Request: fold
Amino acid sequence: VVALIIVFSFGKLSTANLNTNISSSFIENDVVVARDQYGVVSIEADNRLDAAFAMGYVHAQERYFQMDLLRKSAAGELASIFGSGAINTDSSRRLHRIRSRAQAIFEQLPLEEQELLERYAAGANTGLSDLSVKPWEYIALGVSPELWKPVDSLIVPFAMFFDLNDETAYYDHVRSEFNRVAPESLKAFLTPRYYRHDSPLVEFSPSELSIPDDFGLRQSSEIATYYDLEKDSAIGSNNWATNGPRTESGRAILANDMHLMIRVPNIWFRAQLNITNQLPVTGVTLPGAPLIVVGSNTRVAWGFTNSYGDWSDRIRLELSEDKTQYRTRGGMVDIIEYAEVIDVKNAEPVVLTVRETQWGPIPSIDSNESIRWLAHHPDAINLNLLSMENATNLDQAHEVCQRSGLPPQNCVVADAEGNIGWTIAGRIPKRINIDYRLPITWEIADVSWNGWLEPEEYPRIVNPENGAIWTANSKVVVGSELNKIGWGAYDLGARGAQIRDNLLSLDGANEFDSLAVAYDYRGVFYQRWAEHLTQLTANTNQATLDDVHRYVSQWDGLAAHDSIAFSVVFDFRNAMINEIYQRVGEVLIEHHETTLTPRDFTRVSRGEDPVWLLLQEQPEHWLPSQYTSWREFQQAVLLRVVNRWVSEDGTLGEQAQWHRSNDATIDHPLAVALPDGINQLLRGLIHMEDIPLNGSSNMPLVQHGKLGASEHLIVSPGREDQALFNMPGGQSGNPFSPYYSDGHEAWATGVGLPFLPQATEHRFTISAKPNSL
Reply:
């Protein structure tokens, strides 16, 4: 009851200023801030510093709690507002000492960039203080917001590093243990370098697989636990570009949809900067930072997807007997210890001791490895992306990407001359010729990352002959160029292949055609699994399997929210891959001592090609001992999948519809701190409307649980008035704002809204005080 009173009484009082003029001594000249019907902000300023102040002001007024969560999440400070339940999360982040590293980065920035962050912070703190009451979330939690510091804008990008990288190099550990206990034939079989579904921008040859004769599953007597791998590991993000000859207008078109965990409010905030003597730039910003992250400036448009390269290593140490020193090329060196103090709401602080080598932190007291992560390096984050606002062609835009400090991304650019290109945005370490998928010995650690690649050394593809570029978290290049990026946890490539085929089938495409590609939820990749299931369930004379056969044999090929057939096909595929990989793990664990669990073995590779080959060839020595045939084995796995949906009469019903297991409930983060009863009462107010969504993994419209497109952008540089955009949720983080959920339904249903700000509905001026800077 108290929470309800708080929300309703103070929620409206903490909404943003839309029309009241203000003044500040932190700007040099007047700044105009306007909003359109969707709350998209336009800032008119005479210089970039004044624009940064205004951006900080608006971000804080609409999204201060989100900004606060981003910095606290990255820095390991959530327990200060959520209490002891956040200590474990904070401890995992404190291992990386992000606040200290961000401070060191801030101190080495050029003075003009420091001043930019200072102006942004001044704007944020002014925006916060100008609210009639503090944001409602703080009232509900019983805490007060801390002021924004300039260094906090460098901490916020670290939150993206955590979201997008393997910060503990866990995959190195899994692959190392697998390589240690598995025979060579099994390694070659289960971990192919190139899948048949890979879709790089260059020619490649998929790995040829052979089922091992010296290993099988007959040795495994345990029944593997069904575990939905895809729910844990589904990834998304697409971008693509088509050049002038392939489009209706004769101009290049860029499309970008960055997939992240969907939250309330959405991670991005839409803005346009109109600065005197600079190109107008429109796009999305990340509240907490004064940059346009993705967008267009009328001359170039740029978009990002996560590269999934290898950006972290495990370094094997030689420790002294008392574990206080480690060996380097210069001899034994002391391990440095740092005391990280975690403030806990309504409890005593917790002191965490972080032990570090010159290569990075040691994850635990009993570990003999150090973690080296790109984010630890002082050059990992910078403000070079600011230069994109004034880039005028593809070459300039690519160099901006290559010199920018951010989590390494696939950067796709289109320019107003019709050029298109791909490169990596973010710093790339120079590597030597070793296998970085496995832990590295201390003897070579110093030279295994030796400086940074220069822009001319970066992998890059410009104006390919087919007139199209696409990325989808899978391998974009192969061979030596891929070695520069590293062998990370890439997606299969089926999604990229479907985008590629869609693009190459278009002739005279326009922005709406490109939006249709973004919302394509055809299950092309799953078609062969549907055909396989149709054969597997034919003539069984068993009610449940007969019902599966009826649905799957009539499947329309769509991952529609109400599809029963797709639910069965999707979950059966996942279950078979997990079943086989976990059984492999059980056999290896039974014969070798290892720290891995059967579930860990599902992370060895994506699993598609090896499992598909097993199902086609059905070797007897790979059939688990409790089954008499592969048909029986597969039907048993299938029944475990569908029995949770079966009605009393043995048939499948509405509970098997895809959206039932692919629920995309989009909640406010405060939900974790409120009692269930209060959450239910507030559901219609603070959470987004539950709309059954189409889509899945391995297709352009990636929608899997809370993972979905955080934005859709379709733009042709110089034709921004025809560009399309949508995103889940709205501009504001306050449920009493008119912009809290505007645009959410359009995002869910695939209706493209205008990219540019529309007619002004609200406007105010920030006046420079006479004693201003």
In short: The mean pLDDT is 93. The radius of gyration is 27 Å. The first strand starts at residue 22 and ends at 24. Residues 48-75 form the longest helix (28 residues).
